[in-house]
Fold these 3 entries.
Entry 1:
Amino acid sequence: MKHHSLILCSALLVILAPGLAAQQLDQLKKEAVEETDKLQTLTQQMVDEIFSFAELGFQEYETSRYVTGILEKNGFKVEKGAAGLATAWVASYGSGKPVIAMITDIDCIPRASQKPGVAYHDPIVAGAPGHGEGHNSGMAVNVTAALVLKKLMAEHHLSGTIRLIPGVAEELVATKAFYVRAGVFKDVDLVLGAHVESEFSTSYGIGKGNWSGLVSVQYFFHGRAAHAAESPWDGRSALDAVELMDTGWNFHREHLRLAQRSHRVIINGGDQPNVVPSEAAVWYYFRELDYPRIRSLYDEGNAMAESAAKMTGTTVDHKLVGSAWAPFFNKVIAEVQQKNIEAVGMPKWNEADQTLAKALQKEIGAKVDGLKDSVTPLTEPTKAPTGGGSDDVGDISWNVPMVYLMYPANIPNLPGHAWPDAVAMATPIAHKGSTAGAKVQAMTALDFLLRPELVTQAWDYFRDVQTKDVHYESFLTPSDQPAAELNREKMERFAPQLKKFYYDPTRYKTYLDQLGITYPTVRANP
Ligand SMILES: [Zn+2]
């Protein structure tokens, strides 16, 4: 009965007294902050547990089992195998509109294994994958926020649906275009993405312009084997083709725009020198700012591969293993989110946190300025984009109004995609930063649950500004399939060693405790 009168009250308040409705929203946000604080232990456990799994893209089996287990236990409906991906899923709670999806990545980086809280290179398992980007903290942010929202939505009878989706194989930029193709976002009203950072910020439009889109393509050359000393004239070297393609592309760079970025690794260079390599393969990322320019780099790469095949009497085929549009974020949601970032503020770093940050910055020769102490203001998008890294959330952002919350769970001035970026990621820095991020995710969702006019405004911006002249077109052809076999062998090789170090929260308060690491551990004379 009490609840019924509350709903009626809320409805009347919205119609009759916007001032009082705003008060109710403020009250709910206050409760969201309190409830998030109550979940700090769970948040810490999720950060630490996923850190200890250290799973590469497409192989996030333990992580997905663990996270969906928590969600199912808490009454979320979980559909596994989203878009045909074994480690993907969609979890939901609630009913009706608006449908708010929260997405965040779960995969890690090759060779980035690192003991947390230690300010120099000291792997947990040498050569093994590790969370050298900090994706282990994202689910701690989104799951915590979702649990808080569930509680508030039930207590206050709020209509709406919360959906959680994992960013599988984000480091390979290899799944979100498939999610879009599979219709995962077709009834979603807005997407609140979350990504680890050293700052607390959000952005709209192209933001600082340091995003690129890309295609990730593997070229497989096929030649003819022969004894490399006795009858090399009978052979046709697939490796020669790889090298000629690379040489051709490196000359081609001179004639490309400054905003392009392209890089490659040779994934198969043959077996042994006395056998002319009949098979060789090279893997390219071609990055540019927009669809037509990425498309033309892709076409030029394909032409270069064909030419190298012709020069060497080999043949070539290629496989698209990833693609992404450069992200474009929604101004209406970003402005709402920024207010919540400012209300939550930076985590309270202590002496130990700053000591670790500064010692690591010194260790790697970066600027030594410790952890950030203020949130980043929301700024107008740049007019001079330079391009940079990519994220396959780009494809989502061109299909649904979306923002990307950057929450402060890592140390500034690190190289990215490497062991230093893992140092803070199972320490109080990541724990506090994830709690701060969860508060903003929950508060921003509440804004849109309680003020449906904001959803309409977000879509107006999406339709009238963002997609007025630019229309989304996927890089995928109907025959392209997720490259789900990637990383399988590597993960199978390391999983037995990593398993010995999986975090056990029933025995240890934190992962640092389990590993017996004094926080922080820095060089004697840093
Ligand atoms: Zn990332």
Note: The pocket of zinc ion is lined by residues 105, 133, 135, 170, 195 (CB under 6 Å).
Entry 2:
Amino acid sequence: MKGLIVYDSLYGNTEKIALSIGEALGNREEFSIMRVGNVQPDQFADLDLLIIGSPTQRFQPTPAISNLLKGIPKNGLKGVKVTAFDTRLTEEWINKTPVLAFFVRLFGPSAYAAKSMADKLKKKGGKLITPPDGFYVEGTEGPLVQGELERAASWAKKINPSLPKP
Ligand SMILES: Cc1cc2nc3c(=O)[nH]c(=O)nc-3n(C[C@H](O)[C@H](O)[C@H](O)COP(=O)(O)O)c2cc1C
């Protein structure tokens, strides 16, 4: 099983979630966790599993993650199982900024990076293996809300049964 988690992280919170997901997936052969700057989209074609993680910034993934997704060729993820996750502000923090709260209500799930990343992965031919999800931070720099590392691990474990045994 060849798997890859690619993530971006400005303050380290998304990185912690990526590592928790990687650990929950078990120590599999040929499984890597890489920061976005160290990856090229042509490394994806022979993967069994690709997971992308990004902080939500201005309702979207980071520019580096968006560029990476754009760079995947048409049908470049054919036969690859895919999903995505983001980190995002809690409702309490969103509500501290009325403009942000307004747009979050207007856009619904599309106000966060995970759904748009999952849609793009599917558009490139990937097969969505589990619905995208978001993990909460208390304030722009974090920390993660208590329990989110464990929730990320549970999310990852939903992927496990559909993968070949380690
Ligand atoms: C420029 C910028 C824009 C942001 N916009 C949003 C946003 O639209 N919605 C949201 O929930 N959080 C937003 N945030 C908060 C980030 O989601 C938060 O900083 C991130 O989850 C932290 O993850 P990291 O430590 O991996 O960078 C924004 C943060 C930055 C720096």
Note: DSSP finds six helices and six strands in the chain.
Entry 3:
Amino acid sequence: MKAAELFVRCLENEGVQYIFGIPGEENIDVMDALLDSSIEFITTRHEQGAAFMADVFGRLSGKPGVCLSTLGPGATNLITGVADANMDRAPVIAIAGQGATTRLHKESHQILDLVNLFEPISKYSTQIRQAEIIPEVVRKAFKVATTEKPGCAFIELPEDIARSAVEGKQPLRVQSPTPPAPPLEKVKQAGKIISDAKYPIIMAGNGVIRARAHEQLVRFAEKLNIPVAITFMAKGVIPFSHTLSLGAVGLQATDYVSCGFDRADVIICVGFDMVEYHPYLWHKEKNRKIVHIDALPAEVDEHYVLEAGVLGDIGTALEQIAECAKPRNDLVSTNLRQTIVDEMAALAKDKSFPIKPQKIIWDLRQVLEPDAIVISDVGAHKMWMARMYQAERPNTCIISNGFASMGISVPGVIASKLLFADRPAIAVTGDAGFMMNSQELETALRIGTPIVVLIWNDSQYGLIRWHQEKHFGRSSHIDFNNPDFVKYAESFGAKGYRVHSTDELAPTIAQAVRDDTVVVIDCPVDYSENMKLTQKLGELVCPI
Ligand SMILES: Cc1ncc(C[n+]2csc(CCOP(=O)(O)OP(=O)(O)O)c2C)c(N)n1
Ligand SMILES: [Mg+2]
């Protein structure tokens, strides 16, 4: 057998359905072997698009998304999407071709040390130096990528190795370790701290989604009567409509939810990841008791010193602690929750144009069914989405908040549609982030994934302007011109709509979902609300 064939057999053995990428000279043997494989290759228009597709595929499914490039420039183009997956804890396998092993020791056309290049953005970065080790390398890559905390495994396959012959080797059996139950004494210790608490609060992170423990989380909160705040990447772990839900934290400013933290004496962090929300922002005084419930030990941080750490399967830990802890009788957060709910609905009937962020989100939520999947890009729109989009189910609002790279939403929404063909898939993006990977509209059309792209058009790097205004009271180099997004969409063969009045927005989104093709909506946004929010939060009086 050719080594490239063995490599592809190993990927099939891992259950790979799709590989996203761009063929090149140095991976022609793998590309050829893929013709005789059950794996579908999705040809993209930029390797970054391929990496982001793998990223969101991994995040939504829990199974590694796979992306592939050639050596040198192809591989460097993968970098941003791979880094995003790695820091957002999405399992991804990145594969790159490489020049022959006979020329890697010297200056040579397109040769870069890829293993070292991917090292800081992967959990495992390796080169296949002998065809015989292919089954071990592939198995290890998948195992490392999927175990907590998930991330990227990078494999470089030199062209001479890919072309070589190999005998007597076959894929290794796939085994996935089950996380252990937490130690009983730790469960009891946490139970006692929570029972003795006056004002406990839960902060749930993306680890809850990865552990598929959202139902246990809700039961835990209900049984013990404790309010739940969530991070951006945990949207939907508790339905927003639930009376114990406080919404998302992490705008990095004072917010209503942080009032809950100010009041709390015990903060129960479940599947929480500090890449999302630095502890000094919510635990400045370092005097609260922190209970850490997660698969892995806590990161060291002077603002995150634990009272108790309960390690092991998150769902089991929550069930066991709920068994032994004493429920609270009263609920302190009713006013707080009502304030958040009222704020979300305040502009529901607003008619002003360009459209205010709150109103765009309100209409989007009204139009979309609860199981629709929204992928946010990164910018001011992300902050508003994180704060105000009401997610009822996990993995229905995907936000990159570890690496937080612009450009994720268009490729990401294509991946979501491949996984869930029956559910509406919407990218919510800034005009700048859209232009970073808009070339993938062609991919979506070619492979037949109906997606909606809702562009918040301000002809600016809106979030950066927001920061500049806040710090300096003026802005620097944030303006640009946009193409005509409607014509741009049409030039691909997609549909394009422009929203001319606020009344048009909801029907346009509804129509775009019904169109069942690739649709781009150009929606003018009024970002004067950004600084108003900053001013309001600066003057916040806690409603509890
Ligand atoms: C790849 C990348 N480049 C730069 C940044 C820094 N950055 C964060 S948001 C932003 C502006 C985003 O502009 P746009 O997409 O128009 O969204 P808006 O803020 O206007 O909603 C920039 C430059 C980033 N996060 N990712
Ligand atoms: Mg913008």
Note: The radius of gyration is 24 Å.
